[in-house]
Amino acid sequence: MPTGIRPSRPASTSVARRRMVLVVDESRAQRAMLRIHLTRAGYEVNEATNGDDALAFCTSRRPDVVLSDWVMAGMTGPELCQKLRNGATDGYVYFILLSSKDQPADIAFGLESGADDFLTKPTSAAELLARLRAGERILLLQDESRKVNARLTETLEALRKAQVAMDRDLNEARRLQQGLIGERHTQFGDFSVSNLLRPAGHVGGDLTGSFAINAQRFGVFAIDVSGHGVAAALMTARLATQLSASLDQNAALFIDEYGLYDSRPPAVLARYLNHQMLSDLRVDTYFTMVYAVIDQQSGEVRLVQAGHPHPMVQRASGEVELVGNGGFPIGVIENARYEEITLTLNPGDKLVIASDGIWDATNPSGQMLGTDGLSAIMQTNRMSEGLGLMEAMVWSVLRFSGGQQEDDISALLIERKAAP
């Protein structure tokens, strides 16, 4: 223990929480008098003869209160207070200056040094204890604050660990969801299909894909489930199963009377899924969809648009055409009717089915990309193909929106090989 420090003996008064007071004074008589008053009042009392010894004591055992004389050899009382306030000890110490100085300027100087209170010598026991009781209220608030901060720290650490675990699970879910679209680029004879899926968060509600129906035809689909996050992702997982390449699970496929694979007409599939959503699943979720069946020989495309943004055809000449009339989303209106649309993709033509995350992208001025913007992107990148065109489209959309992605972005690109 530093020279000049006298530890107290245990007081006879028993209290639930004994506050520790450090008395700092060069006068032995003054220290003895203060010790008597404080011990009788139930405080644990320690003594220091100068500022250096007091500072050394505070770094090893933090007192609750420091009663310090102003004028001492070496370090003064205000200087000791400043060092304590500057981090010489952990936690808050209630500091009272004792001095024969009683001018307002002196009192102001002492308080500006960081002292909490000021007592003029000679100090009566009643006034001293009254000031200490006032300080007790501040210390109680400090104790409560420390307890609250400790609980907050524990809670934040628990939340941090939970967030880490959640992020790990969501990252894994993102990888699994990316796997739902299968191959990003698939070939069906002279046709190629490219998929783009970029959720706004860890997981999203968009889904694109394709599957072979038979040797002559194949199906493609683009889906956007309402909402975001895990609930939407679970619905896309279910829909991915219903539109997979497996005959046993794919709701669009069946075996005809000749034992050959065939596909239900797009409008029929839309009605079936709508009934299933409203009657069997009975959830608040709905989704938009474009489902198309494409003939590899003739280039005929039969599709249904169920609330999804308009598909766009870019002819080999570069001209862009909108397809469809909108239609009802799946899972909103019972017995909704769906229109089937027919068009032909000639050699060199492209069919783009983009989600509203692309169509509704907004620039900093509040202007949406819309038909004109998407048409301009397709015109600008008309020489690009496959995944290169998909990535160029994302880059252009994000550039338009100032790098902000508010919604899931997905797109499906069907290209027919140009004539030699």
Automatic annotation (TrEMBL):
The keyword GTP-binding does not apply. Keywords: Hydrolase, Phosphoprotein. Pfam families: Response_reg, SpoIIE. GO terms for molecular function: phosphatase activity. It comes from the Bacteria. InterPro entries: Bact_Sigma-Reg (IPR052016), CheY-like_superfamily (IPR011006), PPM-type-like_dom_sf (IPR036457), PPM-type_phosphatase-like_dom (IPR001932), Sig_transdc_resp-reg_receiver (IPR001789). The modification 4-aspartylphosphate is found at residue 69. One of its GO terms (biological process) is phosphorelay signal transduction system. SMART domains: PP2C_SIG (SM00331), REC (SM00448). Residues 20-136 form the Response regulatory domain. PANTHER family: STAGE II SPORULATION PROTEIN E, STAGE II SPORULATION PROTEIN E-RELATED. This is Fused response regulator/phosphatase. The lineage of its organism: Bacteria, Pseudomonadati, Pseudomonadota, Alphaproteobacteria, Rhodobacterales.
